[in-house]
Amino acid sequence: MKCILLLTIVILLWACNSSNSNTQSLQRQIDSLQAQINKTYKPGFGEFMSGIQVHHNKLWFAGVNQNWKLADFEINEIKESMDNIKMYCTDRPETKFIGMIDSSLQSVSNAIQQKNSLQFKNSFHILTTTCNTCHQATGHAFNVITIPSAPPFSNQDFSAK
């Protein structure tokens, strides 16, 4: 009986020790993967904002041309970029202000869904004002967004198909 008890204790100690080395191996793998993640490319706040600016411009020309499918696409691209800022730019103090634009984006979305040109123009103006209000609140008042006067690209047709 003592022999069985001693054998059981030895097996348990061996199993615990084996688990410890396995845990250490797993921890090294985790550390290695974390180091790789830390080195991966992460777009900066300004890159997201530059993309949003292009979509803002294209949204305007899609809406004034009553190309509602394109307008819907562009507003959703802006929303996606805002979500990405919230995900990838948590270290930036400006990120906490991103939510202030949500109601303006929703207003533009509603106008697009209703295919209402007048409501679109009005809500787009409010959206643009909200962008500038956010810029002022975050110390970027020098970055003034306006209603676009020319499309960002000469090779895109904004008319409805």
Describe the protein:
There is one protein chain. The termini are far apart. This protein folds into 2 domains: 37 residues; 93 residues, Up-down Bundle (Four Helix Bundle (Hemerythrin (Met), subunit A)), CATH 1.20.120. It is elongated, with a radius of gyration of 27 Å. The longest helix is centred in the first third of the chain and has 38 residues. The chain contains 5 helices and no strands. Helix content is 70%, strand content 0%.
Which spans have pLDDT < 50 for at least 5 consecutive residues? none
Helix fraction by DSSP (H/I, runs of at least 4) = over 70%
**Helix and strand succession?**
HHHHH
**Major sheet, described briefly?**
none
The N- and C-terminal alpha carbons lie at a distance of 88 Å
Structural class: mainly alpha
- How many domains? The number is 2
Query: Total number of helical segments?
Result: 5
Apparent shape: elongated
Number of strands: 0
Q: Mean of the pLDDT scores?
A: 90
User: Within the CATH hierarchy, at the fold level, what is the topology of the largest domain?
Assistant: Four Helix Bundle (Hemerythrin (Met), subunit A)
Radius of gyration: 27 Å
CATH class of the largest domain: Mainly Alpha
What's the CATH architecture of the largest domain? Up-down Bundle
Which percent range describes the beta-strand content? under 5%
